[in-house]
């Protein structure tokens, strides 16, 4: 009797496990078949976050302030047979205003806290189960002037197309699943634009600065364009950490074959989206940048300034309205 009971129990467990595996397999197959359907997949998102502080006779100190941050993105992806074409646009902008601004020459004013425009298009042709022959074009810049408020608020250190980056790459794209992709391009051209005469003459962002010939005395303006040839890797991962939490990370690496190839340019972006209610969400984004061609001014404890390549880091947290749509 004991042997019969154990046999029946074992068969039941095997049947249950088999049924569970089949159910999970069916779900995976359904999901995979949905993800691999031909046609366009379009969508986007929009988030508007803000905060406000008002103080009256507040003995603990502080300043009246208001801040607004926005995120906006669109995507349009096409799959047709063995061909894929992925397009995306990402835009972020944030401003802050305080009742008193350090070094402000005009009294109250808005200060930029975030500004980025990123457009990417990638075309792929299937080479094997998970590999694609691929080409990628990426454009990055900002939309308004930027200032170093640690020094003053009148000297521009950046602006629209100053810098602007245009990258074109040819290589292979590895896509083992819908969540992860890795694009490897041994043949890449990176173009840097500095559409500002003052910044170009100063040699900002790696362009050739202005010069005076010591013999002839002839003056040569700084170049507003720089081209680089190198290798490029882009890794992207997107997943759900919970039913209401989405996480996206993207890492871009570039090395110049002809100038200091061991010094790799890094651009690492992370975005966490937490859905709190129907149109209420919290977002946390971080950006880490290192570019050996960009000099950053720093001030030490003694007030001495120095310039050189530095790790740049930005973190933006927002809580407010959000809207997301998909057309599959």
Written account of the structure:
With 328 residues, the protein is mainly beta. The protein has a single domain (44-327), classed as Outer membrane phospholipase (ompla), Chain C. It has helices at 2-35, 197-201, and strands at residues 39-53, 65-80, 83-98, 110-126, 131-141, 146-147, 156-158, 164-177, 180-193, 211-212, 219-220, 225-242, 245-256, 265-275, 280-290, 296-299, 305-308, 312-327. The chain has a 12-stranded antiparallel barrel. Strands 6-7 form a two-stranded antiparallel sheet. It is flat, with a radius of gyration of 26 Å. The model is unreliable at 1-34 (pLDDT under 50).
H and E string: HEEEEEEEEEHEEEEEEEEE
CATH fold-level assignment: Outer membrane phospholipase (ompla), Chain C
Helical fraction: 10-25%
In the CATH hierarchy, what is the class?
Mainly Beta
Mean pLDDT: 85
CATH architecture: Beta Barrel
Strand order of the largest sheet: 1-2-3-4-5-8-9-12-13-14-15-18
Dominant shape? flat
How far apart are the first and last residues' alpha carbons, in Å?
57 Å
Tally of extended strands? 18
Helix/strand class: mainly beta
Q: In angstroms, what is the radius of gyration? A: 26 Å
Short account of what is shown:
With 328 residues, this protein is mostly beta strands. It is built from 2 helices and 18 strands. A hairpin with a 2-residue loop joins strand 8 (164-177) and strand 9 (180-193).
